């Protein structure tokens, strides 16, 4: 187990009952969530969910609500079976499906639709902030994959994306024809600053130059949210 997680969990829990330990991990996970420490939040919430008995259905559902949100930020999507079992399909079902297909407009519509349900549970603003970044990142990643599929030439040069070629896909994903090159370039810069893209922008040429390697400038999201 990662040392960071080991240190978090090594807190003298053994003398306490399992119910108390589940409660402890649940609230610690919520605290880490409010701190935007996504990986640690996922660790504690998953521990609480796995160790909460099925006899306490309400408690497992309460734990699952933020856990599904955290996993969505990390690019891991709860199954429809799980959502249906805990009566969460109505809020997460369409949202996760839109995330998988890159329908950014649909995701934001679902967040707005369920805002009054998500906000008291402390996950509305977090999802709005983090999923916007994920949606833009996934859009650019799809574009580079599509470009690679249609370019059969062999080159040692780093992969590149022309900002002009990203505008129309962005307009379609966000259902917003007002999006322009400046908007796309701004989001690329934001993703680079957040560590969600390994790249730099050649502004004079309108080109995004991505890092060489197997990930082509898009490190796994879980590796970005290490703490």
TrEMBL record:
Residues 112-211 form the PCI domain. GO terms for cellular component: transcription export complex 2. InterPro entries: Csn12-like (IPR045114), PCI_dom (IPR000717), WH-like_DNA-bd_sf (IPR036388). One of its GO terms (biological process) is transcription elongation by RNA polymerase II. Transmembrane segments: none annotated. One of its GO terms (molecular function) is RNA binding. This is PCI domain-containing protein.
